[in-house]
Amino acid sequence: MKGGKLIIFSAPSGSGKTTIVQHLLKQKKLNLDFSISATSREPRKGENHGQDYYYISLKQFKQHIKNNDFLEWEEVYRDNFYGTLKTEIERIWAKGKNVIFDIDVVGGLRIKKKFPAQTLSVFVKPPSVDELKIRLKKRKTESDEKINMRIAKASVELATAPQFDFIIENIDLNIALKEAEVLVANYIKKSNE
After folding, report:
1. Which DSSP state fits 38?
2. pTM, whole model, 2 decimals?
3. Who's near 190: CB < 8 A, 6+ residues apart?
4. Closest Cα to residue 6, out of 33, 36, 39, 38?
């Protein structure tokens, strides 16, 4: 696989990475396209196949693993798999665009390790774990049990932040958006020189 740039945004759930990625996708000058991950979980209310995720059955997901169809994959929670299909990256590169990922930290670091020369990895850090819990509760998309699982996982994920190229602390969203935009623009510009 060879092509454009890979821009990774990783963070614990509720840190604001999706909001940042959506903002960056609207910046036409960055020439980005979103890498849609595959998952074995059921869609949440308002999510669409082929837009938010490729929703595939657990059996299909495991078959893709056997076929070595994934650039990276992980069982995030029991029988709850997420991964990046190689065909997704090829689809975006074929359009002459750079790939942007909204991905968990393990997947982000795996991609960075496979493509170190063409990857920018950014960790979005929440102000605190307490603030993270407040944000997750405000979403009203998950049970308290699921939120507690995400908070426990967040502590582990926060420890990986130094392994990323840059850390954006999302205390003020407008500042974080601008910081991300400048970071990605500079990376793409420097890479094309």
Report:
1. E
2. 0.87
3. none
4. 33
